[in-house]
Write a structure and sequence with these properties.
Length: 633
């Protein structure tokens, strides 16, 4: 019944542990039990089952996997409350600033909290669409797990983790390696199943180490290290034979000092240093380091105050693409007041002050009103302001590639330029929601949202004949404030327990993204998003067996090709349906076997927009399987 309890505790939405039924926000939680029962291979796969969340997967391992919440790629990613976003920005050209390939392995995750909607007043830049917080397992006892899987397309997956607690010292270490020899897809143009034209040889390795020491009854120190490395060939689309290789490596080091003044008055200071090394037609490096400090004070029985400060400095370098500078820094102060002003009614009021080296000074406000009807029902309304500073790519990117004429083909000049005069993105986001449990076995969540941004940043792309040399076509991309952007949508999810062995879950989410490019055309729909997403799952479980059958579908995708420079956006088909399955058997107390099947209908579809001819540029993987075993101790 854990999935159906609204009184479970969450921490991300208010930066302090709060019952979900007292939280005025749209929060979803992926538990360790769900991760284990469905044998998710990585965090991106787990997030595909979260209502309102869409993973933009290119269908190939060495590409980025990014996330949209409420139709927005501007998502803040935390690991145990520590920022891990890459200030350089997305290498795929969107507004995302994190690649979900780089997160720690799922074997050390206790839960994933997903807050959909603004988070800027508490967390600052990037928390526009929402916040994803990866919370790792506590080292409060000794335990471990090893696993091995084999599957289609030369897939091999190995994991191992161990946590030990001796006296006041806890140590956790984990390692994982995923390898896939090649990638296949169903070609929508002719219905044939094909390999990507270029070789794959995808490899993803992860290592995590965490050590915690209880210093006194009220203080503790934690230090840690997360390492991730993936590499493989990443051509520009499925039919491109280019052996373009991608190598990406992250090295994150951190330390956190926790204390409590009185019972419930907890605080912490954490420092971190994140480094990204990335090679794709040139070397790139990004470094982020900074600190966060926070203190909670229970000022009365019905009032709690959370306040703190943060500082971060980010610097990026590129072998050929950063002509001027490549660094930013930001200092911030924040405060939140959580007040139960009458029984069953509470108000969260939040404020943040940011001093950004390129975007200037900005005060951001938010407020959330929550009505608790009983221990299993609440309604909420929240509003928040957005302050999203331009990232380093937006400000400094400067790349000029020349390809001379060849035979009857014209030459090409590909030019991308950042804009140091960009304004920060600003706006407002509203969310209205209701959650309840009906008859003790049916959990219902419904919410709607509206987002309005000014000075939204995008890369304006154009194509024209070079007036100085007609033998060349010029493909020009310039970072600009495109003027305005609106998003609105809704989400409905239902979880029902049929009996002790059978569960059902279903969700529907809708999002519409519109841009006003200040070109006289008014608001125009953004065709990069599939507006309607459907999910339906059936689960059977007993002491020995666990089986999940999960259907995902999308509809309303735009099939009108929009030519923008050298790119063709939108989709081939307006809808798709795909089916996944997972089965596990507990042979002994400690040993279990599992099997997973993906895209069982072997459908031709894509999660990321892009059309080349009559085919998808980034098709999802075709039908594939993986089988494996896990041993716990």
């Amino acid at each position: 019944m854990q999935e159906f309890e609204l009184d479970s505790m969450v921490v991300t939405a208010s930066r302090v542990e709060t019952a979900r039924v007292d939280t005025p926000a749209n929060v979803s939680v992926v538990t360790a039990e769900k991760i284990e029962s469905r044998h998710y291979q990585n965090v991106a796969e787990a997030l595909k089952d979260v209502p309102g969340a869409t993973v933009l997967d290119s269908g190939k391992g060495a590409y980025e996997k990014t996330l949209t919440l409420n139709g927005d790629e501007r998502v803040l990613v935390l690991v145990d409350g520590r920022r891990v976003n890459n200030e350089m920005g997305s290498t795929s050209g969107g507004r995302a600033s994190y690649d979900f390939n780089q997160l720690p392995d799922v074997s050390i995750i206790d839960r994933i909290e997903v807050v959909k909607g603004h988070g800027g007043a508490l967390y600052g830049s990037d928390a526009v669409g929402g916040v994803v917080n990866i919370i790792t397992k506590k080292m409060d006892h000794s335990f471990g797990k090893v696993g091995m899987g084999f599957g289609s397309n030369q897939t091999r997956d190995a994991k191992a983790m161990y946590s030990i607690k001796e006296g006041k010292t806890g140590v956790m270490v984990a390692a994982a390696k995923y390898k896939q020899g090649y990638f296949k897809y169903k070609d929508v143009a002719d219905g044939d199943t094909k390999r990507w034209a270029a070789p794959s040889d995808y490899n993803n390795e992860k290592v995590s180490l965490k050590v915690s020491q209880e210093l006194t009854e009220k203080t503790a120190l934690t230090i840690g290290y997360d390492y991730s490395k993936f590499d493989g060939f990443s051509p520009s689309d499925a039919k491109n034979i280019s052996e373009n290789r991608t190598d990406k490596k992250t090295t994150n080091i951190y330390a956190k000092y926790d204390w409590s003044v009185n019972e419930g008055d907890a605080g912490y200071l954490q420092v971190y240093h994140n480094k990204l090394d990335y090679y794709n037609q040139g070397g790139m490096e990004a470094k982020d380091y900074g600190f966060d400090a926070q203190q909670t004070l229970n000022t009365s029985e019905n009032n709690k105050v959370v306040f703190g400060t943060s500082y971060r400095k980010s610097k990026a370098s590129n072998d050929k693409s950063y002509a001027d500078g490549g660094d930013i820094n930001n200092f911030a102060l924040f405060a939140s007041d959580i007040w139960e002003f009458v029984p069953t009614w509470s108000l969260n009021a939040e404020a943040r002050y940011d001093k950004h080296s390129k975007a200037g000074n900005k005060t951001t406000l938010s407020a959330g009103l929550n009505k608790k009807f009983d221990d299993n029902s609440h309604a909420y309304l929240n509003w928040g302001q957005v302050f999203k500073a331009p990232n380093i790519d937006n400000l400094y990117y400067d790349n000029n590639e020349i390809y001379p004429p060849f035979g009857s083909w014209r030459g090409s000049k590909i030019i991308f330029k950042g804009n140091p005069n960009l304004k920060p993105e600003k706006g407002d986001i509203w969310t209205l929601g209701y959650s309840t449990i009906v008859g003790e076995k049916t959990k219902v969540d419904i919410n709607c949202f509206h987002s309005s941004l000014n000075d939204a940043i995008d890369w304006k792309q154009s194509k024209f004949v070079d007036p100085t040399d007609p033998a060349y076509d010029v493909y020009l991309g310039v970072a600009e404030n495109i003027h305005k952007q609106k998003k609105n949508g809704m989400e409905l999810s239902i979880n029902h327990e049929l009996n002790d062995n059978w569960d059902l879950e279903a969700s529907y989410s809708y999002v519409r993204v519109r841009n006003d490019n200040n070109d006289g055309k008014g608001y125009v729909r953004d065709v990069n998003y599939v507006p309607n997403i459907y999910r339906f799952g059936v689960r059977y479980h007993n002491d020995l067996w666990n089986a999940d059958l999960f259907l995902r579908a999308g509809s309303g995708a735009d099939t009108n090709r929009i030519n923008s420079g050298s790119y063709s956006e939108s989709y081939v088909d307006s809808n798709y349906v795909t089916l996944d399955a997972s089965v596990s058997y507990k042979a002994t107390k400690d040993l279990s076997f599992y099997a997973k099947g993906y895209n069982l209908f072997n459908k031709a579809y894509a999660e990321s927009a892009g059309v080349s001819g009559a085919s998808y540029k980034y098709p999802a993987q075709s039908r594939r399987f993986i089988i494996g075993a896990e041993y716990s101790f």
